[in-house]
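Weekly structure sync, notes
Attendees: PL (lead), two postdocs, one rotation student
Agenda item 3: pending single-chain targets
PL asked that the sequence for the first pending target be pasted directly into the notes so everyone works from the same version. It is reproduced below exactly as submitted, 284 residues in total.
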Amino acid sequence: MGLLVIPTPNRDKSKRKRINDIDISNWKREIKEKEIIVDSLWIFPNREKSGGHTNEYWGNFIPQIVYQALMRYTCKGDWVLDLFAGSGTSLIECKRCGRNGVGVELIPQVAAKANQLIKAQENPKVFAEVIAGDSTSVKTRRRVKGILTAHNVSQVQLIILHPPYHNIIRFSDDPRDLSNAPSIPIFLKKLKRVVRNFADLLEEERYMILVMGDVYSKGEYIPLGFRCMDIVLATGLFKLKATNIKNINGNRGKIGQENLWQYRSLKEGLYLFKHEYIYVFQKI
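Predicted structure, written out during the meeting:
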């Protein structure tokens, strides 16, 4: 009597949809040629300023973070959603790398300036635009959904979040602005609302990047980065894949004030921030 073989479900991961354009069979070459970071410590000597990138806007994050996210978690032609678009860093990098991008920015004047910078980065093969809106609003979500639908797209392949670090920099007088949240618990509540508002527009098993730093408040160190990480996980929609640390060089708010900040460090028993966190989440 022959051996009874019970068929099992096909779990061939190679048949899953690709999440990047990396040729894994030549991974050493890819790491070198595309300058892909695989370690958790990200050290950049300065902010990329080529193309449409500028350093005019306070609080904008460096294009190299976006580049790394695009290389690891998207393919050419994929769609990226940035819910705190600011001066358009993410979308400029999307155009440079051949990805489509939609950004949401609360302040209309900033959104308009971002679109000028984005248009200056040529690539007619992809779509990239920032809309003025509140990322906590269902109305804004509908507008983003409408843009995707107009391009025959139902979901995006990557979400990027680079919100204010609470009130370290106040970006506007708008009470909806997270930088104007009256307390950290309210800030976290608003951030959680943003995540829940747009999570269904992200494809299953695709990735979301959160860039966040810590803060000092009334002489106390607040681990805001980890609290934001916990807020995302508390939605039950994502699992944590990585916690990366990026160095901070040339902080605009401290340029020319190095001696003052070193003095404060010694006097008040604190250490100067030289890091930010890059949290990588995968949608469950």
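Discussion points:
- The chain has one domain: 36-283.
- DSSP finds eight helices and ten strands in the chain.
Action: rotation student to compare against the earlier draft before next sync.
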